[in-house]
Design goal:
Two copies of one chain form a homodimer. Chain A is an alpha/beta fold and 329 residues long. Chain A has two domains: 3-55 and 155-328, Rossmann fold (3-Layer(aba) Sandwich), CATH 3.40.50.1100; 57-151, Rossmann fold (3-Layer(aba) Sandwich). The first copy, chain A, has 14 helices and ten strands. Chain A has helices spanning 9-19, 32-38, 56-66, 69-74, 83-95, 109-117, 132-143, 154-173, 189-201, 217-224, 250-257, 266-280, 290-296, 318-328; strands at 28-30, 41-46, 76-79, 99-104, 121-125, 146-147, 180-184, 206-212, 258-264, 306-311. In chain A, helix 1 crosses helix 3, helix 1 (9-19) crosses helix 8 and helix 3 packs across helix 8 (154-173). Chain A starts with 8 loop residues before the first helix and ends with a helix. The interface between A and B is medium-sized, with 29 and 28 residues.
Chain lengths: 329, 329
């Protein structure tokens, strides 16, 4: 099936061809101390090392590559908590396309600085009182811009699914197959892309999601059988995952494939970040550490199994990072 | 030529076969912001992701693999500031060999903890007043232990050279060839191993070394044409590079191949560590960041050139790391 709302394995493979050479084939890491703690084998897809510091560049690049010349001339618009913003701004710069980015005014300063460094024009909004989707639609209509959605768009989802395509091959290269694969989950785009690939290539793999406390509405929605809304007045360390609701396109995919969900607290995420620094030598942002936190805090039974997970991003403000590391010494 | 004091390209290739599967093939990273700052292409060999958190495991594994059954039964002894200690302790554990490690009592607590976690028995010495080599020789003789030297041993040097073997192939895979390759330098073992490989595979590559202020006696020795001694009463952030003198085996190799040396200050190293966290998403220890500091602070002309360098290790005490990151925010 190939329409505008159902990601397919073929679509992900085409995306992989489209972004080849432009995106980093990020390494699949393994660490003995994490294995020991988990009681199984843990393989971490280090999207922290992706261009723009997160997996978002994959979807953004796939979206930009598919725009028409006319669309590229007019420009692209993205709404984003910061990582997708960087991905789109960077991809747009590669194609010489102007990028307008709508970001929450309380986005991490590092993310704001990086979007500017890539040449994106930022429009700020208040994520507690304003609807970013509506602002995005209005501005896009007004300026005639193509929207690059952070998760609710086929091109984005299929682009992000390419990480699972790589991960399955990388696991096979070290003699492993994922018994479970845990994806950090905001709007569910990456999870849907990965689930599409895994259902095709590795149907025995249980796809699972990790969400932060207060924004675990995707797993709640999956249990309820309908899309629920998070209370967006809640604060969370995981800025990248503070999405009000799972995406419409992602939802049916997730409903079909996701076998479990984990909720992680700010403290659990902070401890996982500290572990990643000490033992993995990897800087991970809160939203990128949710799946690691689930494994580190033994929310999943990993005994004798192989667990894959996404270290989805590393864009954390240095001051917050120093505070977290200082706290867990 | 194949004797006990001259590393050869064939010896490095044999070491690569010996450690295959046991050592991590670490990624060769590239970052657009570093390229922009340097004015050229910078490719970083991320030995931070090696087992034990530094390149040292390569040499240790090669050494342990070559011991006789009788030697393995008796056990191995290493003198080390901490990274080689971890490498040897980990390799020894793989072979079921008892490891005695002589470490300075002011070694980073993280390194001490890791050596213990790998099951090594630690004997402390005072690096400002005692001669670690002498302590090592005495203890080895007394207990009948095989010595795994951190840099002045053929097996160590050839094992460490395997990283350059990988780096040359990884660079070729992204269409690059090193115009220069900068190695973080303590006793010069890694530099000698890398120089041996590069002279063979990529003779146009200029091999260079980066040393910390106060312990830049290797480059001074090369200029003087004889092995000089550093003033070991000096403090440095780069604990891993605080070696009194270049190794006897490494010295003639370095004299033949090394084309330049860079001295980096504690402040320059700290800023490079902060840059690595923010942009490379990589935790790097001071001694592992010396070569990066040389490039970051533009001590080498990288205009239009491709510079390779070692990010040699990531074993830094969390409290020091948090302090450095907090300072450069």
């Amino acid at each position: 099936m190939s329409d505008e709302t159902t990601p397919t394995p073929e679509g992900v493979r085409a995306a992989a061809e489209r972004i080849r050479g432009a995106a980093v084939v990020t390494p699949l890491l393994e660490n003995e101390w994490l294995n020991e703690r988990a009681g199984g084998r843990v393989l971490l897809k280090a999207e922290t090392l992706q261009h723009g510091g997160s997996f978002k560049f994959r979807g953004a690049m796939n979206r930009l590559a598919k725009l028409t010349d006319e669309e590229r001339r007019r420009g692209v618009l993205a709404v984003s908590s910061g990582n997708h913003a960087q991905g789109v701004a960077r991809a747009a710069r590669l194609f010489g396309v102007p990028a307008t980015i709508i970001m929450p005014k309380d986005a991490p300063a590092f993310k704001i600085g990086q979007v500017r460094a890539y040449g994106g024009e930022i429009v700020f909004y208040d994520r507690y009182t304003e609807d970013r989707e509506e602002i995005g639609r209005m501005l896009a209509a007004e300026r005639g811009l193509a929207i690059a959605h952070p998760f609710n768009q086929l091109d984005t989802i299929e682009g992000q699914g390419t990480l699972a395509l790589e991960a399955v091959a990388q696991a096979a290269a070290v003699g492993a197959r994922f018994d479970a694969f845990i994806v950090c989950c905001g709007g569910g785009g990456m999870a849907a892309g990965c689930a599409t690939v895994l259902a095709d290539l590795s149907p025995a793999t249980e796809v699972m999601i990790a969400e932060p406390e207060g924004y675990d509405e995707t797993w709640a929605s999956l249990r309820a059988g309908k899309r629920l809304k998070a209370d967006i007045s809640r604060k969370t360390l995981c800025d990248a995952l503070a999405t009000p609701s799972p995406g419409e396109i992602a939802f049916p995919i997730l409903a079909r494939h996701v076998k479990g969900g984990f909720t992680v607290s700010d403290d659990e995420v902070a401890e996982a970040i500290s572990f990643a620094a000490k033992y993995l030598k990897m800087v991970v942002e809160p939203g990128g550490a949710a799946a690691l936190a689930a494994v580190y805090h033994r929310k999943i039974n990993a005994d004798g199994r192989t667990i894959g997970l996404t270290l989805s991003g590393g864009n954390i403000d240095p001051s917050l990072y120093a505070t977290i590391l200082g706290r867990f010494g």
